[in-house]
Amino acid sequence: MEAIGQSVYRKEGWDKVTGKAIYTDDIHLPGMLHAALAISPHAHARIKSVDVREAEQMPGVRAVVTGRPEPLVGEEIRDRPPIAYGKVRYNGEPVAVVVADTPGEARAAADRIRLDFEPLPVVHSPSEAIRPDAPLIHERLDQYVIGVMTFPEPHTNIANRTRIRKGDAQKAFLSCPVVVENEVSFAPSSHAAMETRCSIAQQAADGTVTIYTSSQAPFMVKKLLSSAFGIEIGKIVVHTPLVGGAYGGKGSVQWEILAYLATQAVGGRPVKLYYTREQDILTAPGHVGLDAKVKLGCTTDGILLAAEMTYLFDSGAYADKSPDLNRAGAVDCTGPYRIDNVSCDSLGVYTNHPYPAPFRGFAHSEVMFAFERAMDRLAAELRMDPLELRRRNAIAPGHTTPTQVLLNRSNVGNLAACIAKLEHWMDWKEGRLIRLSDRQVRAKGVACVWKTSTIDSNASSGVILLFNPDGSLNLVSGVVELGTGTKTVLAQIVAQRLKMDVSRVHVRMEVDTATTPEHWKTVASRGTFMAGRAALAAADDAIRQIKEIAACVLRCSPDDLEVEGERVFLRDDPLTGLPFKDVVYGYTYPNGNAIGGQIIGRGHYILRGMTYLDPATGAGRPGPEWTVVAQGVEVVYDLRDHTYTIAKAVSVIDIGRVLNPKAAVGQVMGAMSMGLAFAGRETLVFDGQGVVLNPQLRTYRPIRYGEHPDYIVDFVETPQIDAPYGARGVGEHGLLGMPAALSNALTLAAGVNLNRLPLVPEFIWRTKRGAAE
Amino acid sequence: MMPNDFAYDRPATAAEAVRLFGSFDAKGKSPMYYSGGTEVITFGRLGLVRTGAVIDIKGIPECRALGYVQDDLVLGAGLSLTEVEEANPFPLLSKTSGGVADRTARNKITLGGNVCGRIFYREAVLPFLLADSDVVLAGASGWRRLPIRQVFRGEMQLGQGELLLGFLTSRSYLSLPHVHLKRRQQWKTGYPLVTAAALRKDDRLRVAFSGVCPFPFRSAEMEEALNARGVAPAARIDEAVRRVPALVLNDVEGSAEYRLFVLRNALADIVDAIGGE
Predict the structure, then answer these.
(1) Distance in Å, alpha carbon of A760 to nearest chain B alpha carbon
(2) Of A579, A606, A633, which residue constitutes the final position of a domain?
(3) Can you tell me the mean pLDDT for A404-418?
(4) CB 3.0-4.6 Å disulfide test: which of A77, A164, A716, B34 passes with A417?
(5) Same domain assignment for residues A486 and A595
(6) B255 touches chain A (CB under 8 A)
């Protein structure tokens, strides 16, 4: 009865394909009111006045809430008034919230709020923001409450700086015969999840605050509301039903706070706040932008000796998750290679852009784009096959990471094996650049990437298993089901341990923070690892209890018992035993006496041995393991038009162990398509005043059917010894190398270095023209 | 979500539609004729279209016409783009309208809606401009049949309350050698940087464009340059590009100078395919 390794259908699949699945906006509470936002049309401006008099007189309006100086919110730096106060710092920032009887009335009134602004100079990029004469976006950075591991630099726009110093890069460069430098940059973009953000808030007479939200972080909503508004944490209950795509964008807490302020203004009545697509792109936190510089030095044989990097992450108007993002980028700043001398400054820098949420890959696709572009330049300088250069430097057990973690056979995958498979799938021996006609070439690009998950060092996850009278069980976990199928995989893990059929493991999809054990946040490809460990512990706990009761009935030691197929029986005499249904709700003797009771298995897991990073050198243990990946992209490029199609995209991932083959392939393929869309088309377009010109799906276009390449997904299996059945994280990794591989392929095809995203034909044309002049 | 309530009517005749329009108009309802509704909905939710009454033209037989009257192909304004594509009486029109939006949207978007729409690409008009089609309009004083090139100047020049019933195109144009090209910012979805439709008639190229300027056009001056005798194709194309009749679009899809680069290559492909010689 193997559950692991089977392509089990998602438990929520039938509801989803029949349209019966319930998302936050499908919830209608009695007496519910509706909120609408008035948002800033400016990227940076002093608020001269917010005149709500006319709006308040509009039909159906119950309240209009405007900004206040306190409290400030924000995850790593408390720098953000939930509703703008004093000034606005990005186009789309909430300026007022209207609460009315219907969504239409709320919208109509929000449009009647008269806003008067005095525009301020706009900071358009992180490079611009760190100039000494740049306008300050946060004048009082020194007075904010900050988190551990966050190091803002007051009187500048630097929200956080992470330093990595391993070996002596400066000295090592002196002995490098070959040195290259490369700069890349790209602007913020959007997650563009199918479900836009939505939240409902209400407050009961006893003060209990109930929130429904489309979130990856219901437990963080609870903590942040409690700390910002002084609400007793036990009196906050957060419900999260199914989430319609998140990709990191729902790991931030924003819309819940606005819904909370709205319900406060109407005496605790339930208020729903639903973001339009435009607000979802403008107002909600998006995907981070980056300006980066990478310098690499190596021997004439291509052995890397030194790397020096500057990563300027576009933190936008507020810090929120950006210090974590720039730190995560620093931790894996080099890509998956052995380099003994590393120096990296990774900064989160305030600009007048929308601020960043996590984005699938958490700063890794961004940093890997910068690093892997530099690797290709180095290969070109060496006149070496770019895959061979990567093979020669591939990370392996015995090497150390940039933060000086010693790698072993469990905590890092087998990159060399991934590269070997990639070589096959890319038909590398055929050559990298193939002339198809006088107009067309076919070109191949590769990238190697890695990722560890730099989540809080004390993040934990819990699972409860509640048995039903028929011997089946219910699995309760704080993992949010956002389309990754993680809860189905958890059911497989439990079924495998209990040796029962996975169809008999029922999964509770909704999270309710009052009754669901906490899972820190459903982010960072940690669901299967952490909740999986908790699920194994809970299964073991249930097995122990089942054996204890059965041992009484069967008059044996629990050690003599085995569990399988919803039975507990003597190991050496399997016919002597009891069905689960006679045990899991207590055992009743023929005379009516009973023992035991409903079996409730419980388990939890906390990350082991994680440490803070040394502020001077970055040394420390930021995450439990490194998943390694080798990826490639093949394009067909038109030499006259500079247009191209992506013919093929390949990912080879050391996944540790494949738990659910189709689900794993689906995750990787989905991530790859997202990476190609980010690399090839998706970006916010800003005008000269920092206003977003494309906050609609008409003009902000994710990849569509008919535009996809052939996807090839393959796995290497090097078990992570302490993970459930050896599985490594895989939710994000398909994305990470796609931007770099695409730009490497196009650089080869076009014959010019392409260092910006998105890689639209106009950009290639412009770069070619610039190179020609 | 539509921000306001509105009246809905589905008249059975053009005369009734025009009468309803007049009476809603007199009541200050800002009425609109509609068939697919895609713009009413998408602009309505943004507050960019505000109407107190919509008049559905899909119940009017003339608006649903798809057939021949003598030597003319008749296409009603209320036909969806996919209906026209599937029947395929005018291959260049099928190809051009097939480039609009996506299949799901084209099941709703109608010929008349695309040509009269507020989104300025209006690509379905290009083949009619090339084929010297006529349009039939219904107004308070009856019907008018007019050459489309007289009525369409970047957008339809309709009188207040006037309704576009359909298009009449001479059979002789339907199967002429033709080219349709749609060049976008990237890949296969999105608005055009350049949509070009071209026909070869009596040994002359006819070309019409969308996406180059903020309105679709057919330019006699550009055609003259393209058909110049005894001039090398590259020089003809350069001259045609110089004769673009207005400022070239410069927006999130692409810069003006890049659009000209794309336009030049599109013209080269057209000349290559059906330019003759």
Answers:
(1) 6
(2) A606
(3) 96
(4) A716
(5) yes
(6) yes
Q: How far apart are CA A642 and CA B262, in angstroms?
A: 10
The DSSP element (H or E) to which A49 belongs, if any, is strand A45-51
pLDDT at B40 (0 to 100)? 92
CB neighbourhood size of B265 (10 A): 19
Residues of chain A with Cβ-Cβ distance to B262 below 8 Å are: 641
Contact at CB, B189 and A701, closer than 8 angstroms: yes
- If residue A474 lies in a helix (H) or strand (E), which one and from where to where? strand A473-477
CB spacing of A103 vs B262 below 8 angstroms? no
Contact B188 A707 (CB under 8 A): yes
Residues A26 and A106 in one domain: yes
A6 lies in a domain? Answer: no
Q: Say if residue B276's pLDDT is above 80.
A: no
Tell me, yes or no, whether A70 lies in a domain.
yes
**Domain span at A768:** 289-455+611-772
Going by the DSSP 8-state scheme, the letter that residue A590 receives in this structure is T
Q: If contacts are CB pairs under 8 Å, which of residues 115-174 in chain B contact chain A?
A: none
Residue A595 scores a pLDDT above 80? yes
Pick the CATH number of B61-173 from 3.40.109.10, 3.30.465.10, 3.40.50.720, 3.40.640.10: 3.30.465.10
- Interface pTM, i.e. ipTM: 0.97
Asked whether the beta carbons of B80 and B103 are under 8 A apart, the reply is: no
Q: Provide the shortest C-alpha distance from residue A107 to chain B (in Å).
A: 8
* A693 closest CB neighbour out of B45, B46, B252: B252
- Name the pLDDT band for A321 (thresholds 50, 70, 90): very high
Domain boundary assignment for chain B:
7-59, 61-173, 178-274
B3: nearest CA partner in chain A: A104
**Residue B186 to residue A680, Cβ atoms within 8 A:** yes
Tell me what pLDDT residue A455 has. Answer: 76
pLDDT per position as a tens digit, A254-279:
999 999 999 999 999 999 999 999 99
**How close is the nearest chain B Cα to the Cα of A387, in Å?**
28
Q: How far apart are CA B197 and CA B207, in angstroms?
A: 6
CA diameter of chain B: 62
Average pLDDT over residues B74-94: 98
Q: Look at residue A389 in the predicted model and tell me its pLDDT.
A: 98
- Residue in B closest to A686 by C-alpha: B252
Residue A526 confidence (pLDDT) above 80: no
Residues A533 and A616 occupy one common structural domain: no
State the CATH number of the domain containing residue A238. Answer: 3.90.1170.50
Q: Are A107 and B253 inside 8 Å of each other by CB?
A: no
- CA–CA dist A720, A55 (Å, integer): 59
CATH architecture of the region B7-59? 2-Layer Sandwich (3.30)
Task: Based on the fold, state whether residues A339 and A274 are members of the same structural domain.
Answer: no
Number of domains in chain A: 3
What CATH number does domain B178-274 carry, 3.30.360.10, 3.30.9.10, 3.30.390.50, 3.40.50.620? 3.30.390.50
DSSP string, A654-705: E-SS-SSHHHHHHHHHHHHHHHHHHHHT----B-TTS-BS--STTTS----T
Residue range B21-32: mean pLDDT, rounded: 97
Question: Two tokens at A6?
Answer: 């089977």
Residue A100 lies in a domain: yes
Report residue A425's pLDDT band, with 50, 70 and 90 as the boundaries: very high
Domain harbouring A542, CATH code: 3.30.365.10
Q: With CB atoms and an 8 Å threshold, state whether B189 touches A760.
A: no
Q: Is B261 on the interface with A (CB under 8 A)?
A: yes
Q: Which runs of E-coded beta strand occur in A503-626?
A: 505-507, 511-512, 561-564, 567-570, 573-579, 585-588, 594-598, 600-606
Q: Which of residues 33-72 of B touch A (CB under 8 A)?
A: 45-47
Give A254→chain B minimum CA distance, Å. 23
Residue A607, pLDDT score: 87
Q: Say if the Cβ atoms of B187 and A680 lie within 8 Å.
A: yes
At A479-490, the pLDDT tens digits run 898 988 889 999
